[in-house]
Every structure is written in structure tokens, then in C-alpha cells.
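Colleagues,

For the teaching module next term, I've prepared a clean inverse folding example: a structure given as C-alpha cells, and then the sequence designed for it. I'd like students to try predicting residues themselves before seeing the answer, so please don't circulate the second half yet.
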């Protein structure tokens, strides 16, 4: 038996302890997908399934199933990977059709839905049905940067998994010059930080951060902040990370003052915006961002 070392926090040790559906969070796309492929391979391995207590992460690397998996032709494995487009209702229907058929190798069936945040609302609702009717040998994994953008009804039917990362202190020791907000935005992902250092993205983070602070002080109009980030998905998510962080800060503060109405309202607006913004493209995006900033500016300043 071989073992994929999976960097997944609090993953059950035994296959029989696994739930039917998981949301797997991780900002590092490569790392979360490679972990999930390792897990899927292990769940499908035929040698594994002959063990009564099969250990999660183990696979033989020699059986028919392992060979099919390595050749990307496993009939009981389905990967939905829409990085740029949206995941529509047809994509979700394909997954339920897939699960409604018997497994080809009479073992487990595994679906990995990468970029789950790109699901349309209709697709999410269609997926609910699949999540509500678990078959006993099927596993569904929804991969996303942050579960915050998924519908609450989806969240309530899934368990959560996270990538295991170094602590903030360990990362600070490796990258002493990095600001806390950059480490925080990476979700403590070392490979993400590494790529930002290599791509010289750090300066841009600092610029957005400084603009955001000025915006909070009402020294910079909305459109300057928006123009800085709107065409750059990474910088847009960074800005929204800063906004979310600010709201959390206000929530904590309000715990002592007792007046949390503004922070709560801002938090609700942010959740709504996150749900609607994935469908907004092009020019309309900066319009939507501008409306959003207008609606929260007085609440978070
Ligand atoms: Zn195998």
C-alpha cells in the first residue's frame, strides 16, 4: 500500500468515518486540487476496498482502478472544473445522472466540483437535491476559496475540510518582511505567498491596502479604489478580504459597546454582494462594486 500525504486538516482516518458531502476550502488552487485527487484515488482503489477498515489516503497504485485513475479515464470519478465560466444547472444535472448509475467498478463513486463558488443559484439549488439523497457509496467534494460565498442551504448539508497550513508565526519566520494582512489573505498558504513573492505582486497588495485605509478615512473616493482592483481578480478578492476583516473588527469592538447594528448590516450587505457578484461581468462589475461601497461606507468608517 502506498500513501498520499494529504495536507487536509481533521480528515477522518478511516474511510467508513467519511461523510457523504464535503466542502473543501483552500485559497491555493493547485494544492486543494492535488489533495482532492489524492483522496479520490484512495477512495476508488480496489485494493483499499477489500480492507474492512480502509485508511483514507492509502492506495495500491497497481489495481485496475488506480491505473484508470492515473490515465484520467476512471468511469466512477467525475471532475467538474470551470475555472472561468459559471457552473450551470446542466453541469449539476450531469453529476446527479452520474450518481444515479451503478458504479462501473462496483466500488465508490467520487465527484469533485472545483470552483464551487462559480455555481449559479439555480445550479446550487439543483445540487441540493443530490446532497439530500446520498447514496451509500458516493462522495461529493465541493472545492472553493472560501465557503462564505456558498448558499447557506448548501453549507448546512456538507461537512467542512481545510488545507493544513503553516501557522502565521512559522510563515513570519520564513518571510519576515511580509505584512500580516498579506499572510492573512493567503490563508497561511506558503505556496501562495511564494508565488506572490516571485511574481512581484507584493507591492500591489501594499498599494491596495494603503488606498483602502485612506478610503476608510474618507480621503479617497470610491472610484479610485475600484479602478485599482476591478480588472484584477486577485486584487478584487484582496479588497474584499480587507472589507471583511474590517467588519469582523467592528463586530469584536461592538461586543464591548453593545452596538453591533452597523457591523451586522455591513456583514449582511457583504454576504449578499458576494452571492450576486459572481454573475456580474465587465463594466457592470465596477458599477456593482461602486453601489456596494456606497452602501457600506458609512457603516464601516
Ligand atoms: Zn489501487
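(Answer key — instructors only)
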Amino acid at each position: 500500500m502506498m500513501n498520499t500525504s494529504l495536507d487536509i486538516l481533521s480528515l477522518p482516518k478511516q474511510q467508513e468515518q467519511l461523510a457523504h458531502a464535503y466542502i473543501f476550502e483552500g485559497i491555493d488552487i493547485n494544492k486543494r486540487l492535488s489533495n482532492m485527487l489524492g483522496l479520490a484515488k484512495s477512495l476508488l482503489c480496489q485494493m483499499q476496498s477489500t480492507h474492512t477498515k480502509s485508511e483514507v489516503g492509502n492506495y495500491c497504485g497497481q489495481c485496475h482502478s488506480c491505473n484508470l485513475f492515473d490515465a484520467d479515464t476512471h468511469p466512477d470519478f467525475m471532475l467538474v472544473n470551470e475555472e472561468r465560466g459559471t457552473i450551470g444547472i446542466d453541469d449539476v444535472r450531469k453529476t446527479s445522472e452520474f450518481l444515479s448509475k451503478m458504479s462501473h467498478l462496483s466500488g465508490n463513486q467520487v465527484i469533485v466540483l472545483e470552483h464551487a463558488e462559480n455555481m449559479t443559484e439555480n445550479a446550487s439549488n439543483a445540487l441540493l437535491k443530490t446532497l439530500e439523497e446520498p447514496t451509500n457509496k458516493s462522495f461529493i467534494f465541493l472545492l472553493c476559496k472560501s465557503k462564505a460565498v456558498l448558499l447557506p442551504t448548501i453549507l448546512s448539508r456538507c461537512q467542512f475540510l481545510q488545507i493544513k497550513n503553516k501557522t502565521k508565526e512559522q510563515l513570519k519566520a520564513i518571510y519576515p518582511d511580509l505584512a500580516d494582512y498579506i499572510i492573512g489573505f493567503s490563508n497561511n498558504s506558503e505556496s501562495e505567498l511564494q508565488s506572490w513573492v516571485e511574481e512581484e505582486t507584493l507591492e500591489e497588495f501594499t498599494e491596495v491596502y494603503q488606498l483602502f485605509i485612506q478610503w476608510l478615512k474618507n480621503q479617497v473616493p470610491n472610484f479610485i479604489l475600484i479602478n485599482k482592483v476591478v480588472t484584477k481578480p486577485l486584487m478584487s478578492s484582496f479588497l474584499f478580504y480587507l472589507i471583511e476583516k474590517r467588519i469582523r473588527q467592528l463586530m469584536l469592538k461592538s461586543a464591548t459597546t453593545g452596538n453591533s447594528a452597523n457591523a451586522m448590516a455591513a456583514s449582511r450587505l457583504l454576504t449578499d454582494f458576494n452571492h450576486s457578484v459572481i454573475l456580474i461581468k465587465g463594466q457592470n462589475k465596477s458599477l456593482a462594486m461602486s453601489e456596494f461601497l456606497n452602501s457600506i461606507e458609512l457603516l464601516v468608517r
